[in-house]
What we know:
Layout: E1 9-12, E2 43-52, H1 59-72, E3 76-81, E4 87-91, H2 94-101, E5 106-113, H3 124-128, E6 149-154, E7 172-173, H4 187-196, E8 212-217, E9 224-226, H5 227-239, E10 246-249, E11 251-254, H6 268-278, E12 282-286, E13 297-298, E14 306-312, E15 333-334, E16 346-349, E17 353-356, E18 362-365, H7 368-385, H8 391-401
Parallel strand pairs: 6-8, 6-10, 7-8, 10-12, 12-14, 14-16
Antiparallel strand pairs: 1-9, 1-11, 2-4, 2-5, 3-4, 11-13, 14-15, 17-18
Helix pairs in contact: 4-7, 5-6, 7-8
Amino acid sequence: MPNIFGATLLALALAAGTAGTAATSPAAGSPPAATTEAVKADKIPGRYIVALKETTKDAGDQVTAAVEHASTMGAVVHDVYRHALHGYVASMSSRTAAALAKDPQVQSVQQDQWVYATGQAVPTGVDRVDADLSPTAAIDGADTRVDADVAVIDTGIDLNHPDLNVYRAGGKNCWMPLLPPSDLHGHGTHVAGTIGALDNGTGVVGVAPGVRLWPVQVLSPFGAGSTSSVICGIDYVTQNADRIDVANLSLGSAGTDDGNCGRTNGDALHQAICNSVARGVTYTVAAGNDHADAAQTVPAAYDEVITVSALADFDGKPGGLGRSTCRTDQDDTFADFSNYGRDVDLIAPGVCIRSTYLNGGYATMSGTSMAAPHVAGGAALYRATHPTASPQTVKSALQAAGSLDWSWPSQDGDAVKEPLLGVSAF
């Protein structure tokens, strides 16, 4: 398992498997496998729809000949079309697809993609933390918006996503200061959707629907950045601490907590977070995905933040009866990749989480990066009804409202069972 938490670069909190690893070609009708925090994109890897040009030749003969030709090139044909369309769908390599696209008898070669039932879905994570029971979230499809502000310190946000209430008047790009904080990676947009996707009857809904999302880009389109760029983002959030209630940091690097806000070991990142928390901003942070003690990862190790580990939950319900979906793990248990330890404050769903993605789309990802924004949404719900609450009060309230109704010790590497986020009372 690669260690994405580099000593010099702050990278996204990715875990088991290499980021961006393509899923294997799925069997017809089954969803693709996904590595931790890799996207189960709408595109189906290795499967293509080939449309033929209409000719005076008999459609049956034309399709049969085309299928035979594709087979000689190594394609595996799954189905043929002879009426609404002349063509076929087949599994093949991208090289074969490109070669077929140049065939004079081929009209187009299009990668197959998943299609979902219309209407809004309550993601399993949102269901598991009981956001649908929160009176403040008021999830009923009526597009009631939670009155709070959350900064997503990440790869930016898809500024035009129709399912997100992005605060366009705010935001900052610390990676490329002359450009808007627009997400070209997908991670930040996914995090944003879990926090606050709109309750508008389409797509998905977040824990705190319609919350104002401030895009703060500190990571590149490749998902990596520097400590200085993250401090730039925290500096911007602190500048706007009179408006921003919560900030989410689903990122990390190697480091420790000196117990003195970074003044002893010269940790500038820690100093910045301490000063921002002192201004009233609650920080939610991913624990990391090395299945190791979070005490060796910052900002997860800092006492001033809310550090979140990941729960494997596949059906949005307790009991351990859910079947694995996008990756293999045991339902209702500590995720097999998640960091653990005394610095972890809460656990939240972080496996196979469906949320918003680039170009107005949706995707499924796994990681503690997906767990932390559930807690950010919970913190936003609390701040919406307790606007003067301090970060420590917010943390204590979330922990007190949490449940121990999940299977343990499972993959947890320490002797402490952290409370599972629950927001029904907020």
